[in-house]
Amino acid sequence: MLPEVFKIVGISRQDTSSLDIVENTRASIEARGEVCDQDILDQLAQNISIFKMSITEPDRYLDLKKYLDDLEAQLHETHKSVQKIKLKKLFYMAVPSTILSPIIDNLGSSGLNKGSRLMIEKPFGYDLISAQELVSELGKYFEEDQIYRIDHYLAKETAQNIMTFRFENPLFNTSWDNKHIKMIMITASESIGIEGRSNFYEQTGALRDLIQGHLLQILSIVMMDKPDDMTAESVHFAKEALLKNIENIYEDQITLNTVRGQYDTYRSEVNNPDSTTETYAAIRLNVRGDRWQGVPVFIRAGKALKDKVTEVAVIFGDSDEVETPRRGSSINFANVLTIRIQPNEGIGLDLRIKKPGFENEIKHVQMDFCYHELRDLAHPDAYERVLVDSLRGDRTLFATSQEVLESWRILDPILNAWQNRRGELEIYETGSWGPKSADHLVARDSGEWTTDLAHICQI
Ligand code: BG6
């Protein structure tokens, strides 16, 4: 899917060669049990080059600019085109948030910002203030439509399907509100731990790592109003409006609405016996407005848990108070719509039917759609999608500054309260489903219906 004329320039302080990169590519493709297309690897090898520099040295940016200009001139020669070849540049940055600012400054001062796109990996900031600083730094040299902030969760096939599923099926489109939906729960449980990323994780924690970007992004597409059309602008407008309506959880409500936990072997893994970094976070949010008032929204993420499950559970219910549901109103009957983001990608609907037999007994059954049924179609990996979209200039699946700032606005009070030691840190057993208090948090809202809701994925 690459354009006919392209060049990839790697920036490295080390003596990496383009051959090393191609060989690493081959090894990683083969490690996934996939077959390498030698022609494509050869094409890549011919078009990759390395420019050796330290990204913190301002002087080297002018040299980089010259290098890219020369490359452009060479391409023009090789392709003997009538019109001058003009490279569109995309700068892709997978760098720590702390060195993002000087890079942006250097790109801007050397004129490399003009007409270029900027693709930025998370984390975008550390809290609201640092994110605001980054936004204003970027704003000095780049327009918002030049910026592509990666959130690979948005590019996962099932996550993208959320919009189609919601808006193209009248059954769900017309019942997507608090008259029909009683609770929404987004879960990202991982069985892996921190995988040796001690420094990164000690400064990050589950709330920043998974909830700030990935899960609040998913939440916004699950709950946003239908955009006017499917252009990037309209989708972003609808997502931003939803995020703005999420109420803050202030310090006096922290214990009631948040849970933080840490797996039992974490402290020895990071070699810090006093660490209070959470490897599990659960929060309960309220969304203002006629459509969602009264519907509790739970977001949970954790590491070293029993299984890898990322899913959205939408609980349609029949409650005591249909018109103006309030906290704690019990759900009498429910249908659960489960959007499985991974693994076993698909969508399931839990329904009630009559159990065959003489008695009039009720039984739960699952109506299930599984992506496996579409196995003959190409399923691009989320990162393939992100890269292709950025080259095409489609920003729909990227997060805007406003979305990122809203997510920090929502999480900042929780982070501060936790830092001030509000809300106890519960140690949980590796391989379990996480802190018991997270189950209680969910069960409180499900009333008498079922406490199994805590492990919705098993229903
Ligand atoms: C990353 C986090 O963004 O997402 C990791 O930094 C996490 O801690 C990963 O493990 C999960 O991604 P996926 O695609 O495996 O669900």
The number of helical elements comes to: 14
Strand order of the largest sheet: 13-12-11-10-6-9-8-7-14
Helix content: 25-40%
Care to count the β-strands? 14
Q: What is the SS-derived class?
A: alpha/beta
Write down the secondary-structure element order. EHHEHEHEHEHHEHHHEHEEEEEEHHEH
Please, what is the average pLDDT? 89
Amino-to-carboxy terminus distance: 41 Å
Any ligands, ions or cofactors bound here, and which?
Answer: 6-O-phosphono-beta-D-glucopyranose
What features would you describe in this structure?
The protein has 459 residues and is of the alpha/beta class. It is 39% helix and 20% strand. The protein is built from 14 helices and 14 strands. A hairpin with a 3-residue loop joins strand 11 and strand 12 (346-354). Residues 322-329 and 448-459 have low confidence and may be disordered.
